[in-house]
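Researcher: Here's my situation. A collaborator sent me these components and asked whether they could plausibly form a single complex. I don't have experimental data yet, so a predicted model of the whole assembly would be a useful starting point for our discussion.
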Amino acid sequence: MQVVYSPAHLRHDPKFAIEQSRLLPTFEHVGRAEAIRETLQTDARFRFSAPSEWGLAPIEAVHDAGLIRFLARAWEDYQVAAGPTADVMPDVFYRPALRRGMGERGEPEAVQAQFGYWCFETTTPLTKGTYEAAITAVDTALTATQYVLDGKGTTYGLCRPPGHHSTSGMYGGYCFFNNAAVAAHHVASTTGTKVTVLDVDYHHGNGTQEIFYDRDDVQYVSLHGDPARAYPWNVGFADETGTGRGAGANINIPLAARTEDDAYIDALHSALEKIQAFGPSMVIVSLGLDTFFTDPISDLAITADGFERQGAAVAELGLPTVVLQEGGYDVAALGDNVRRWLIGAGA
Amino acid sequence: MQVVYSPAHLRHDPKFAIEQSRLLPTFEHVGRAEAIRETLQTDARFRFSAPSEWGLAPIEAVHDAGLIRFLARAWEDYQVAAGPTADVMPDVFYRPALRRGMGERGEPEAVQAQFGYWCFETTTPLTKGTYEAAITAVDTALTATQYVLDGKGTTYGLCRPPGHHSTSGMYGGYCFFNNAAVAAHHVASTTGTKVTVLDVDYHHGNGTQEIFYDRDDVQYVSLHGDPARAYPWNVGFADETGTGRGAGANINIPLAARTEDDAYIDALHSALEKIQAFGPSMVIVSLGLDTFFTDPISDLAITADGFERQGAAVAELGLPTVVLQEGGYDVAALGDNVRRWLIGAGA
């Protein structure tokens, strides 16, 4: 199986995050992607290649131009405005209700406040090289997608930073640009065919849902920890089924805590039926391994065998498939869990 | 001069806050109010009394019932949901754009996410006794106001936590309930007369502005660091003048960095002219001493003499006056700066 990887992800090098009222070492760090790379490189099934450069146009087709400009310059601007800070996070958040009756003003003047305008939480530090890494993660997704479009079979894009929490206009949840959404829009818009994003990360991909919520050319299907108890908390409920032309093209399957392999595979099969009914030309998998039973920030109970079964179930669709890396935080097991999923998918 | 004070503020005992991408000792701590109390107690001009209890009704008249319920229970709920945590802060913030096309859902199910629904930033820890302290700060404001209504002359309410950043539906900026807004609404609604809130804190009182923005019975007049460079960043601009019946009753005077006493007093005189034109029965001063030249989080250049001149200028209005404590973070100078302001005001 083809793997697309770039060491450019190392330039996104956060050291800590603010979670649960504490300053913690970040769960999303350079070691995650390196652990995956090392494991796959020891297995002859996987062939590595580097991403090609796709430029900003595919990102601009999905994300607010202001968000892109902000991410390109904000770290440097913050150093000037607030002094040397390796990991920059928002502290004050723009909420429209703050300006009740006053009208919208748009992006604040001060860069310190711009962070809380373009981001929705505190766990996603912007570092010196984040923008370049995020651009390369999109390039990785698009290059993997092109391999599939070119008929080279199921391809894995080792994207880092991940993407599925980033909405059209906001970043967060360890994500900056929505790699899977950029790839899905690219395929749908350049081929005129329908595309499905199947999200098996523990966390609901609120960003992908938001981007495609009113569209009928991209279906979003997600299995995830119920947002009543899990990040991203405010989005990902079963009653969110799409709007307008997109009505029916958004499918959320919230799962109970400690869901095990058999129950997960059952839920996945019902998701795959919805995908077959939609009739996409391609499936883009947002692959999270944080459903693993020892994941430090999640509460499902999937095993390595379960990941291989997931990959096999998706492969049974018989559709061109791109697999893009999202979460997974038990780093000791992460590489092998990815390997097993991809073996299931036909590696 | 009568001073209303309660040691109940000690129950709001935050140790740190997240500001500028760092975990810092909080600038708003118990030592602030104690420094003021100690200084005023050494001066025979000041007579101390305790607040009486006013119950929840005056708060419910100004704040969302859901916010009040949340603040009453959230710290305990968080201990159960997320484990022992003395200082609780939000990490994920509800932004309506996250649910673009999906409709509103209201307060999230999980308490961890409720923090980011009812709060707009990370510098305002909720601690075990915060709710009781915040209730007592409102009682302090209302008791001081009652002294003035009873004809006992200018009265100072040593409120802590402060209040002016809290909006009708959100807390933040070291504030929980908006003490000055509750007092102003109480006077306006029980006497049928007009009231002015004059805010001389360094930071714009976005909460007070939001609460009264569409009302013509409460005027809000603020001098503050320009939000183009200062917290609260998103609100406090000169073009925000009120809406509907409140049109013209909101007056913002943003000030340049390093503004000194003479320029400040000039700006204050123009504010006082607007107050005279409005014709209130009472002036409630939101007193911040963070305009002081050595304040650690602000950038104006007011001196102790300047504070006495401010108090004297307000006294020249000849209106019944309540002075309620807001900010001020150079704790070594804080007590004397309050004392000088109140001496100017006639203590």
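Model: Some features of this prediction you could bring to your collaborator: Chain B touches chain A through 60 residues (CB under 8 Å). The mean pLDDT of chain B is 98.
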